[in-house]
Amino acid sequence: MTADTMNGVKADINSLRNTTQFIIPEKKTIHQGYDIYPAFKIEGPIYNDFASLSEWIINQKKNIVIDGYSGVYWEQFRMELNQQLIENGKTVHWINIDTALKTPEIIDRLIADNLQLNDPVFGKQYEGDLADFFDTEKLGLISPINDELTIIYGCGAALVNLDAKVIYIDVPKNEIQFRSRAGHIFNLGAATTTDPKIQYKRFYFIDWPVLNKHKQQLLASIDIIVDEQRIKAISWMNGTDFRSGLARMSVHAFRARPWFEPGVWGGQWIRENINGLNQEVINYAWSFELIAPENGIIMENEGRLLEVSFDMLLFHNNKAILGKAAERFGYNFPIRFDFLDTMDGDNLSLQCHPSVAYTKEHFGENFTQDETYYILDHHQDAKVYLGFQENINQEEFRTVLENSFKHHNQVNVTDYVQTFDSQKHELFLIPNGTVHSSGKNNLVLEISATPYIFTFKMYDWLRPDLNGKPRPLNIDRAFANLNFERKGQIVSDTLIAKQTVLLQDDDWQIVNLATHPDHFYAVRRFEFDSTIKAHTEGQCHILSLVEGESIIVKTGNSEQEIHYAETFIIPADAVHYELINKGKNRAKVITAFVKEECC
């Protein structure tokens, strides 16, 4: 649902998204260095307008279902497409599927236990289906008008039992959040829009899980896929060509589209080293390199671009992507890569992450947020906060934190938590329950299990968020999960990765960075002067160039250039790949994959 029109007047596009980030261009541009719009070349045309889509609809001589994801500006889309159909001499009977939704009051009762209104941040995943939000009797009453083209549109339109062509509209989750901040979109079945953070919580725990199931069920029958993020300049392509593109991506190297966000602790490295970003932003705290639930993938044909959600790859063929790990993780991509930039910024909050059992019980997730910090760059004074001091007193620590929250008192964190000097290419291990924080002046490549919002903040240096409001703390949840045995010398011995050479030759070596037993993934580093060859061994490999100018990655007959700090994926079904150094100095590529024993 959206609130993108008023009295039938089209809204101004600039008012429909609240962000300083640029929108993806229609066509691929040539650039040097890190590419913020990485695209995978496919066969089959991509179109960039409503006119061509209207022509396709008219030529089908069938009724049409236009389904799609949350955050689509449905009425804006309908008006643009209807105008083109009228200009082509076609009158359409439009039916909004929202008329068959259950009342907001019934839906609120349906999701109340999952939404957990007493908690401003966390809820529990809804396990039902999209159909739960609709009135079966009302759905049954929806039918086309004889001798007139009928188009049923909206989230869940394909739930109507209708012999029709299916158009599916996707919109990236970063754009959904930008639209939410603009106050123009509703949650599924909601009567009103609300605060963006509350809206995001409902998206994460309610809307997105049911819409993902629905999208997966529709994928094989989609006739047209539409990327709606540019609103008036849509991209679209044939469903058969789209699925062929997914199949090709599933056996070759590709990149997800990263996206970037400022934060209260954010630094300046990303802004100064990644071209194409808005330089007027105060900082960039994050680069979401690969957070599969929120990243997109971009397809390219003759320079035209179309972006869809990353999970389309998994829905199409999760075994081709994940290999042996598909049995355990299903359609959930298990590993994430992201950058935390505190260079000339500030400390992250003092935090920890929940245990597996706690995560399952309270949030409905099947695995938890076990992390590592890989130091990509740092200033001389940079530190990492990790583990407790040997003399930690649990009760005293909690009292100090609670008093700080109530009375705005500063906490001398190092009285309770250890710090370690940052060293380039060092890997700090952060299994669930470990107290930790990145200090200022680090560029951290965070290699982690995919869950990404379950951070329990205990102390945030008495600072407000960028909007001037207090940042919520989660002291109770943190103390239900903190491991107070990770203290003293144990931290140095077990939470800083031991690095050993596994294999080597004259101009290359493979280094193992041993992870903690709680980590289900392994981390290794390829170091090479010219080339190195690798085998997926039935696993998906996630990689990043952490030293060197650029490399070429070869999978089968496909080659792709990778620049410094870019993250890329090798699907399990690629089987073999080769990395070729294009720089003058030794290249280093970090890689992570699911441990054999954890599949």
Description:
By secondary structure, the protein is α+β, with helices and mostly antiparallel strands. Helices cover 24% and strands 28% of the residues. It has 14 helices and 32 strands. The strands form eight sheets. It has a six-stranded mixed beta sheet with strand order 5-6-4-7-8-9. Helix 1 packs across helix 2 and helix 7 (239-249) runs parallel beside helix 9. The longest helix has 23 residues, at 196-218. The two termini are 39 Å apart.
In brief:
With 599 residues, this protein is of the alpha+beta class.
Could you say which structural class the secondary elements and strand pairing correspond to? alpha+beta
Radius of gyration: 25 Å
Biggest beta sheet summary: 6 strands, mixed
Number of helices: 14
Order of strands side by side in the largest beta sheet? 5-6-4-7-8-9
Kindly state the number of beta strands.
Answer: 32
Name the average pLDDT.
95
| Backbone shape | globular
Fraction of residues in H or I helices: 10-25%
Strand composition percent: 25-35%
First-last Cα distance:
39 Å
Note poorly predicted spans. Answer: 3-9
Topology:
Blueprint: E1 5-6, E2 9-10, E3 40-41, H1 50-60, E4 64-68, H2 74-87, E5 92-96, H3 104-115, H4 136-141, E6 149-153, E7 165-170, H5 173-182, H6 196-218, E8 224-227, E9 235-238, H7 239-249, E10 259-261, H8 269-273, E11 286-290, E12 296-301, E13 304-309, H9 311-322, H10 326-329, E14 335-341, E15 350-352, H11 356-363, E16 371-378, E17 383-388, H12 394-407, E18 417-421, E19 427-430, E20 436-438, E21 442-449, E22 456-459, H13 475-479, H14 489-494, E23 499-504, E24 508-513, E25 521-528, E26 531-535, E27 541-547, E28 550-555, E29 558-563, E30 567-570, E31 576-581, E32 587-594
Helix pairs in contact: 1-2, 7-9
